[in-house]
Design a protein that fits this description.
- Two copies of one chain form a homodimer.
- Chain A has 424 residues and is α/β, with parallel strands linked by helices.
- Helix content of chain A is 33%, strand content 25%.
- In chain A, strand 15 and strand 16 form a beta hairpin.
């Protein structure tokens, strides 16, 4: 008798945790992803700031599937689902399923602003992190030989939109890269010529944190030499400047956007009810109301708890992945399926070397202790002994020598330095 | 008084060694390269076969220039030289020089065969190595879901043209990747379905080696399961097949070309006499006859010794780099310039794990001893403590666990899988 088949669409934190539990469960497991690796997204900003090689935060999915008897991997771009026919539709084929776990994550949302979308950098995929690293180093190269002061200033100004964890972590790492490494590499450029501007629409940074940690983070970020503009919105961009809602125009060749996320575009094609940000409305057990064989988890799903949608974070996706794997095994045994309950183990963000904020188990941490916890948890959740070793080595090297070694421009054909590049 | 300026165009092995000697010599040194790093080309094939991260064989040039008082780095693509006006012409500017060291290396030559140039992979730059790795992994992904046997066979056939060290090293590493790693990763594919074909126009592999080492290499390569066709030429390619001069057509999506090199195209624009392969004819002291302030070294220069042109290898470039640096310092002291004499310290090629051939100090080595020497010398010549550590770790990991961890497809938009991709 053929095994029943579970197809897992998307191998982020949700899909990966579901696959791990379902492996060797007696069901056939097919893992599908457009990439052949699982990506540890929380460290993308360190790839973008020359701290890590991109290979050290990715793990080949076939290195997992080959360990599991009834699991296999299918590389492919997911375009939709035929819910009635129980088929996952890929760009180059389709896959029949008995159970489907949709875990396609989220994408950056520019809220329909095309000019920002065209000129902004974001961090969702590995290639984007490398492209951003190349761009940062390239604008320094260009500035080092630029004599026009206005051009120099635009090349050396970095605008970061969004004061959530990604924006704060990227800003802190970028500032440290500039202060400790690039200022020595580029004797032609004075540190005072560089400028990092954080733009946040709300009245504080890290809004998910308690107030005293938000205050600590804001103080720390500003003390590092990063300008913070609160209650300010970006309205447009053209590659060599960014315009704010208050009429201010900041000349800059680098706009980093971390101010919005939306569920994968596949959600909209499912023909099921959607919540805000295009997230799929799911039952308390994370299944679709009309299709109990289809589970939706992670950033893509809008599961509510205490009346509020759960946040789009890795811990939610991981717990949901394990929950739906257990659900499917329960269904197979003829048992009832339980509703999903999220256990909030805390939240954290790192600002710079020895500086972070964290909330866990009802306690709050800041500074060195929070940073140490952040470090250990990220190493723990990273997959693969070799990746952990590489990341640890890179971090130790940087901690003791203040030196980022990955400062290579691996593709000098930068598309987004646009405005000024063309003017030269 | 302004320092006299030495411009070094190209930071390969020749330029790097010249810069090291000239640093702190009392002259201003400007290092120019289109990339912001020195590339350790001899290990490119290991990046292409998923054995190393590309970052571990590159070293940022500004990490060097910042250690030297009067040295600086200028990133730029070199387009030519105004010999009369003593100006190096870059794509985006120019640089005046008192002394110029031209060290632009070589490029792959397809001998004017455009269809081969369009469809072949070669290994000269870091991006090419990553693109080839992505391609190899992608054809395995495509083959794993391909049911048409002819298509499967074309996807799983790899044609390597050129039986020199690069061809042999790449073929050996590719075969080991397939046998030890990919055959476990892809249960859908039988090892017997894969095929590596080496095509060499001469009557043996590694023609620079003594006969008994050539025979050992041929035996070893064949015993690994690689087909070797000697005295055979490739005449055309179309992305899904390769045609040989004897009428045989091999269906393949992967053509790797290491059968020809020519000097950098900048040579042709200099307006000075050229030798075969576009190499610049230099005086015995490596200067241009009409322009004693211009030195040409490495692959770009045709220096003769005992009536024969010196080979286009790293050791020749390194020794020439040091020689011209010493020459410039001699000229500055008002001393005579000596002719360059190449000291041949040997040559080597690795075939696979524990298998290599080497000639040095009048002795020949093969098998494990040659491989151990190869390993140590490559680690020794690699620049930077961190790179050495990373490479050593990767090699040790592979040696003991037979596992390549860098098997990521980091850009799934493969251009060259063309023929079959379009047909699907």
């Amino acid at each position: 008798m053929a095994l029943k088949r579970v197809v897992i669409a998307g191998m982020g934190f949700g899909g990966l945790n579901a696959a791990k539990m379902l492996a060797n469960s007696g069901l056939e497991v097919v893992m599908v992803d457009r990439n052949n690796y699982h990506l540890f997204q929380p460290l993308l900003y360190q790839v973008a700031t020359a701290g890590l090689e991109k290979e050290s935060i990715a793990y080949p999915l076939r290195a997992l599937s080959r360990q599991w008897q009834h699991a296999r991997f299918r590389m492919g771009t997911i375009e939709g689902v035929d819910l009635a026919g129980r088929m996952l539709k890929l760009k180059d084929g389709e896959l029949a399923y008995d159970y489907l776990i949709m875990a396609l994550g989220s994408r950056t949302s520019y809220f329909g602003n095309d000019c920002i979308a065209r000129h902004a950098f974001d961090l969702k995929q590995l290639e984007q992190a490398e492209a951003l690293r190349n761009h940062i180093l390239l604008v320094f190269e260009m500035a080092s030989r630029e004599s026009d002061l206005a051009n120099r200033s635009a090349l050396l100004t970095f605008v970061i939109v969004g004061g959530g964890p990604t924006g704060v972590e990227f800003a802190g790492a970028l500032r440290e890269l500039i202060v400790h490494v690039l200022s020595k590499d580029y004797p032609e450029i004075k540190l005072a010529e560089t400028r990092i501007v954080m733009v946040e629409a709300a009245s504080s940074l890290l809004n998910a944190m308690p107030e005293h940690l938000r205050e600590y983070a804001l103080c720390k970020v500003r003390s590092m030499g990063i300008e913070v503009m609160l209650e300010v919105k970006v309205v447009s961009a053209d590659g060599s400047s960014v315009a704010l809602h208050n009429g201010v125009v900041i000349p800059t060749c680098t706009l980093f956007w971390s101010a919005g996320v939306a569920a994968s575009e596949v959600s909209a094609g499912l023909g099921v009810p959607l919540a805000s940000a295009g997230r799929v409305v799911v039952q308390p057990d994370l299944r679709l109301a009309e299709h109990p064989e289809v589970y939706v988890i992670g950033d893509m799903a809008c599961a509510k708890q205490d009346g509020l949608p759960l946040p789009m974070t890795a811990p939610v996706a991981e717990q949901q992945g394990r929950h739906v794997a257990a659900s499917i095994m329960a269904v197979e045994r003829g048992e009832a399926v339980k509703p999903f309950v999220y256990k909030d183990k805390g939240t954290m963000a790192t600002i710079g070397r020895s500086a972070a904020v964290a909330v866990t188990c009802g306690m709050t941490f800041k500074g060195w202790p929070a940073w140490a916890v952040w470090l250990m948890l990220h190493l723990y959740y990273l997959i693969g002994f070799r990746n952990r070793l590489l990341v640890l080595m890179n971090w130790a090297y940087y901690y003791f020598f203040h030196e980022h070694q990955v400062r290579l421009i691996t593709d000098a054909d930068d598309q987004k330095a646009g405005g000024l590049l063309n003017g030269r």
